[in-house]
C-alpha cells in the first residue's frame, strides 16, 4: 500500500509574527519557514507504517512556492521515498489544495492519505475533510492512534470529551493530531541521501485544478493586546484583589 | 435568508455550545433551523426547541447518526442544504470534523472559527494562533461556518417552543463505524462553560501531583481544570483538558495558570479570559505579560496556601 502525505510550508512555530501596518497581511519577509508541525507527525506515521511493512512507499506532496522544496526534502530526510511539488506562488485555500490533492490521489492511487489536522498559519482545519469529501472516502480526523486492519483501519480520535475510536474503510483520509507520535530528527546521512531522492515538479493545471480564491480577505488586523498587570507579594493579597478589585471570586 | 445550525449534543443533553452558535446565527440574521442528528435524541431536540429565535427543529435519527460520524452527518446536511444560504455549527470536535466535508460537497470554502459577525457575508477569525485577525468575506452561493463559541454569549429561552419535525437520514454508504468512546469522567464544570479555570503545566510533575495540588483549589472555587500541552503529553492530564491553539479555546471570568510558561500556542486558547492569574517561579516567564495578577513563586507552596485561605 502506498501512503501519500501532504506537507505544507509554514512559518516556524517558534516565530512571533507581525501584522503589516497597512492591514494587508502578515509580514513573512526573512521569517524562518518550516514544515507544518502536524505534517511532520503525519510523515513520521507514514514512515513508521513503511518500516513495519504495512506500507510499500511513502510519497510526500506539497502545494506552494519553489521554496516548498525544503519541506519536501525534510520529509524525504525523515524517510519518505519521493516527493511531488505543485507550484503555486500565491497562498492556496484549503478547498483548492483538496482539489489538487484529489488529482494527485487519482494519479498515485494511495491506500491511505495522512495529512496534518491543521496548518498553523491559516488555522483552517479543513483540507483533509474536504479531500475525503471530494474522493467519497471515509475520514479519521484528529488521530492520536492508527491501527491498520484488513481493508480498514481503527482510528483513535481526540474529541472534546476525551477519545473516540472509529473504524474506517480503506482507502481513507487520516488527519494527525499532536499525540499521534513524536517525529524523529533526520540524521545527517539521511539529509544527504534525501538530496538524491526524486522530487518532481507539477502545476495545479496538471491536475485540472484552479487556485482562484473563493474568499476575499478584506484586511488583517492586530489582535486586542493585553497589558501586563501587577505582581502581588502573597496569596492573601491575590485573593483580596480577585475579590475586591476584579470581583471574579 | 435561512440558516441551518448543526447542534452539538449527546442525544440526551444539548450542549450550551449550540446556544452560543445560535447567537452568532442570530447576528447573521434570517430564519434559523436547528438540526439534531442523532438517535433517541428527542430530549436534545426538546431542549433546542426552547431556545430563543429558532424557527424550527429538524430531527434525523438513525444508527449511523448516533455518534454523528462525519460521512452520514455531512450527507444529511447536504441533502437539506437547498433551503439554506448559511450552514453553521459550533467549532466543537464534531463541527470541525463534519462541516469542511459539507463545504467541499457543496463546492464552497468554509470559514473556520468565526469570532465576530461583521455582516451577513463578512466575518472575523483568528489566524497564526490568534496573533492576527483576518476579516474575510464570502460572496459564494452558500456560506459554511464554524463558530468559536468562547466569543459568543449563549442565546436565552424562547417564549414559545419551536415546532419539531423529523427527516430521513441520507445514504452515505457505510464508510465508517463507531467503535467506542473513552470519555473522561469528571464532576467538575465543563471547560468550555466554566466561569473559573485552574490550569496546570509541566511543572506539576506527575498525574498524582496534578490532581493533589490543583483539585483542592478548583473544588473551593467551583472551577474547571485545564492543562497545557506539555502536561497532557506527559500524561499528567487527559487530552480533553488541553487549552490552546490545538486544544480548547476558553474565555472564563478567571483563568489561573499554574506552572505554565505562556507559549503562544497556549495563549491562543486563553488570552481572551477576563482576568488572568499566573503562578510561576520564573519572573521572566511570558505568561506574566498577559497576566492581570502574578505571583512569582513555587506553585507547590502557593496553591495549598490558596486552598487554605479560600
Ligand atoms: C503545533 C503546535 C501546537 C501546540 N498546541 C498547544 C496547545 O494547544 N496548548 C498548549 O498548552 N501548548 C501547545 N503547544 C506547545 C507549546 O508550544 C508549549 O510547548 C507548551 O504550552 C508548554 O507547556 P508548559 O508551559 O506547561 O511547559 P513549559 O514551557 O516547560 O513551562 C513550565 C513552566 O513552569 C514553571 N515552573 C517550574 N517549576 C515551577 C514551580 N515549582 N512553581 C511554579 N512554576 C514552576 C517554569 O518556570 C516554566 O515557566 C503546541 C506546540 C506546537 C508546535
Ligand atoms: N499547500 C499545501 N500543501 C500541502 N499540504 C497542505 C497544504 N495546505 C494544507 N495542507 C494539508 O492539509 C492540512 C490541514 O491544513 P488546513 O486545512 O489549511 O488547516 C495540513 O496539515 C497539510 O497536511
Overview of the structural elements:
The complex is a heterodimer of chains A (249) and B (310). With 249 residues, chain A is α/β, with parallel strands linked by helices. Chain A has helices spanning 37-51, 69-78, 94-108, 127-135, 188-194, 235-245; strands spanning 2-6, 9-11, 33-35, 57-64, 82-87, 112-116, 138-148, 152-159, 162-169, 172-176, 199-202, 215-221, 230-231. Chain A has a nine-stranded mixed beta sheet with strand order 9-8-7-10-6-1-4-5-11, sandwiched between helices. In chain A, strands 2-3 form a two-stranded antiparallel sheet. The termini of chain B are far apart. The model of chain B has no long low-confidence stretch (mean pLDDT 97). Chain B has 310 residues and is α/β, with parallel strands linked by helices. Helix content of chain B is 26%, strand content 28%. Chain B has eight helices and 16 strands. Chain B has a seven-stranded parallel beta sheet with strand order 5-9-4-1-2-3-10, sandwiched between helices. A five-stranded parallel beta sheet of chain B has the order 13-12-14-15-16. Chain B folds into two domains: 2-167, HUPs (Rossmann fold, 3-Layer(aba) Sandwich), CATH 3.40.50.620; 196-309, 3-Layer(aba) Sandwich (Rossmann fold). At the A-B interface, helix 3, helix 4, strand 7, strand 8 and strand 9 of A face helix 3, helix 4, strand 5, strand 7 and strand 8 of B. Strand 13 of chain A pairs parallel with strand 16 (293-296) of chain B. The site of adenosine monophosphate has 23 residues of chain A, from helix 1, strand 4, helix 3, strand 6 and helix 4.
Amino acid at each position: 500500500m502506498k501512503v501519500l502525505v501532504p506537507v505544507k510550508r509554514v512559518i516556524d512555530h517558534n516565530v512571533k509574527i507581525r501584522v503589516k501596518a497597512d492591514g494587508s497581511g502578515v509580514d513573512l519577509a526573512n521569517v524562518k519557514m518550516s514544515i507544518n508541525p502536524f505534517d511532520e507527525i503525519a510523515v513520521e506515521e507514514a514512515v513508521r507504517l513503511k518500516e513495519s511493512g504495512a506500507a510499500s512507499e511513502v510519497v510526500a506532496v506539497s502545494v506552494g512556492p519553489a521554496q516548498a522544496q525544503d519541506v519536501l526534502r525534510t520529509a524525504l530526510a525523515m524517510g519518505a521515498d519521493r516527493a511531488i511539488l505543485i507550484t503555486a506562488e500565491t497562498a492556496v485555500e484549503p478547498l483548492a489544495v483538496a482539489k489538487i490533492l484529489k488529482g494527485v490521489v487519482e494519479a498515485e492511487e494511495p491506500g491511505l492519505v495522512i495529512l496534518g489536522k491543521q496548518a498553523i498559519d491559516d488555522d483552517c482545519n479543513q483540507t483533509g475533510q474536504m479531500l475525503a469529501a471530494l474522493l467519497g472516502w471515509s475520514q479519521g480526523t484528529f488521530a492520536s492512534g492508527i491501527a491498520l486492519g484488513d481493508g480498514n483501519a481503527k482510528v483513535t480520535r481526540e474529541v472534546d470529551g476525551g477519545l473516540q475510536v472509529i473504524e474506517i474503510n480503506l482507502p481513507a483520509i487520516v488527519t494527525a493530531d499532536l499525540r499521534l507520535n513524536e517525529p524523529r530528527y533526520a540524521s545527517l546521512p539521511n539529509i544527504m541521501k534525501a538530496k538524491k531522492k526524486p522530487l518532481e515538479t507539477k502545476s495545479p493545471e496538471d491536475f485540472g485544478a484552479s487556485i482562484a480564491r473563493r474568499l476575499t480577505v478584506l484586511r488583517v488586523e492586530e489582535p486586542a493586546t493585553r497589558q501586563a498587570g501587577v505582581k502581588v507579594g502573597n496569596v492573601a493579597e491575590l485573593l483580596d484583589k480577585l475579590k475586591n478589585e476584579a470581583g471574579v471570586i | 435568508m435561512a440558516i441551518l445550525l448543526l447542534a452539538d449534543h449527546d442525544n440526551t443533553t444539548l450542549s450550551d455550545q449550540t446556544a452560543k452558535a445560535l447567537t452568532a446565527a442570530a447576528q447573521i440574521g434570517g430564519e434559523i433551523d436547528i438540526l439534531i442528528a442523532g438517535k433517541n435524541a428527542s430530549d436534545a431536540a426538546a431542549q433546542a426547541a426552547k431556545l430563543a429565535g429558532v424557527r424550527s427543529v429538524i430531527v434525523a435519527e438513525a444508527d449511523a447518526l448516533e455518534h454523528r460520524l462525519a460521512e452520514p452527518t455531512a450527507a444529511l446536511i447536504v441533502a437539506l442544504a437547498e433551503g439554506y444560504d448559511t450552514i453553521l455549527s459550533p467549532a466543537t470536535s464534531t463541527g470541525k470534523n463534519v462541516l469542511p466535508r459539507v463545504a467541499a460537497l457543496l463546492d464552497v470554502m468554509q470559514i473556520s472559527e468565526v469570532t465576530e459577525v461583521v455582516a451577513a457575508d463578512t466575518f472575523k477569525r483568528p489566524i497564526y494562533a490568534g496573533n492576527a485577525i483576518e476579516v474575510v468575506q464570502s460572496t459564494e452561493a452558500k456560506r459554511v461556518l464554524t463558530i468559536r463559541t468562547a466569543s459568543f454569549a449563549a442565546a436565552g429561552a424562547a417564549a414559545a417552543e419551536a415546532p419539531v419535525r423529523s427527516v430521513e437520514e441520507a445514504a452515505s454508504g457505510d464508510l465508517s463505524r463507531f467503535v467506542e468512546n473513552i470519555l473522561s469522567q469528571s464532576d467538575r464544570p465543563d471547560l468550555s462553560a466554566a466561569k473559573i479555570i485552574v490550569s496546570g503545566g509541566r511543572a506539576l510533575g506527575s498525574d498524582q501531583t496534578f490532581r493533589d495540588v490543583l483539585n483542592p483549589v478548583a473544588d473551593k472555587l467551583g472551577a474547571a481544570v485545564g492543562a497545557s500541552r506539555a502536561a497532557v503529553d506527559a500524561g499528567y492530564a487527559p487530552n480533553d483538558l488541553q487549552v490552546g491553539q490545538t486544544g480548547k479555546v476558553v474565555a472564563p471570568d478567571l483563568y489561573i495558570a499554574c506552572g505554565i510558561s505562556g507559549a503562544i500556542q497556549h495563549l491562543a486558547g486563553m488570552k481572551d479570559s477576563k482576568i488572568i492569574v499566573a503562578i510561576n517561579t520564573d519572573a521572566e516567564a511570558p505568561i506574566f505579560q498577559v497576566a492581570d495578577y502574578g505571583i512569582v513563586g513555587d506553585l507547590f507552596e502557593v496553591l495549598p496556601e490558596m486552598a487554605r485561605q479560600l
